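Re: beginner question about structure tokens

> Can someone show what the tokenized structure looks like for a real chain? I only ever see the sequence side.

Sure, here's an example I had lying around. Input first:
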Amino acid sequence: MFDQFEAQAPLDKESFERQSLALRQQLLEIQFSLENTRHPVIIVLAGLDGAGKGVLVHRLNEWMDPRGIETNTYWEHSDEEESRPYLWRFWRQLPQRGRIGIFLGSWYTQVTQQRVDGTIDDQAVEAFCRRITEFERQLSDDGAIVIKLWLHISQETQRRQLEEKAPRRQQNPRVTDHPYELVGKYQQAMATSKVVIRNTQTFQCPWHIIDGEDRNYREIKAGEIIRDTVIRRIENLEPPAPLEQLPEPQNALASVDLGKSLEKSAYKKQLRKYQAMLQDLAWEGYRQKRSLVAVFEGWDGAGKGSAIRRVTGAIDPRLYKLVQIAAPTDEELAQHYSWRFWRSLQRDGRATLFDRSWYGRVMVERVERFATEAEWSRAYREINEFERELTLHGSIVAKFWIHIDQDEQLTRFRAREQEPYKRHKITDEDWRNREKWPAYETAVNQMIAQTHSEHAPWTLVAGNSKYFARIKILKTLCKAMEQALY
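And the corresponding structure tokens:
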């Protein structure tokens, strides 16, 4: 790619001012036209140190309305970022639909730096690039316009920019001891960048290589690429991706033995045992900085809440957060579906417990048609990629589906109506969902078939006996944590 790169002639001041006047108006019009669309714009500015990325950010904020632009930089790493999966820091700062986010330093920075430093090999770089392309594909599939700009400069230009024009620390105290991490490593950085760009060059999210030697040219060229890319996307000039054809799932729920039960005396004894064990394991996870992410799903009335209370009753309150998922808020609807789950993840060594979860997209949203077929069909792959990111970071992922039959559900619904302190648990929506049992059953079976994996397996819990279900969940959590920690 760089071998075929052609240097561009400098753009004189008069030509720049003439072109920038028209381009500025066009970019403003495009920015305002985005406001009522489902498209966020994500601009990735990459290139070697001294290529003028920061200057270009200033120009884009000058040409467009900065109130609709958020610039994100990642030149310093916080403990908060390092104690969560790598992509968490980027998910939490994605722009809302209709807005623009500029990423100066992005998900490409770490892999490039580590390869130049020699801390990872080419195989690790390629694996990391696959994770990046998955991330960008998820954003693009959801409507994001991902624009990746690489500003290319020669070694001599970099030397001149960094050594001759850069402010000295004595003159500018904001300059750190190591302001340019890749100084003196031009050839190594370029070799790595070629590999990274080649492995992340996709039809959906292509790279645009810009000659960065001349400031006037690079700013006009960058503005034109942004303008043209956004216009193509909002005018729907690109064909939609075809729907994935999913195989018919097996009836996994039929294999659950709902006759399993546990006597109260045995339940109390085992409850004390496994809660004590889980308490110790939670503290060991904290010491080893290994997080637990537990998902609780099941039929309405299956006993998720009571099971979760037995789990939280065993863990120090400082070591967990319970996240209860309901209908998305306006803020959440303005983001990718996965955004609200990424931002809920707790730091290393702590547990995040989800009372309902990202699986709502392939169950409730599918059955009730809150999501399109394209959205819930691709969600299986997105979910698997999300959970793999968790486990790659070292998190322990446990997923429970609490299964009951229709007769048991009816009994529990009626009991809730009769008990004053339980009436808040039963709603008209619960009765409506019950009428759609066959549709939900199909969705659950397909969910299990598509998202059961070695690193994030489903545990199907027989829930007709609440005592049995609670112990099954506690025992499974203890076993999963033991295997991971010892």
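Each token stands for a local structural state, so reading them left to right follows the chain. Residues 25 and 63 are 8 Å apart (CA to CA).
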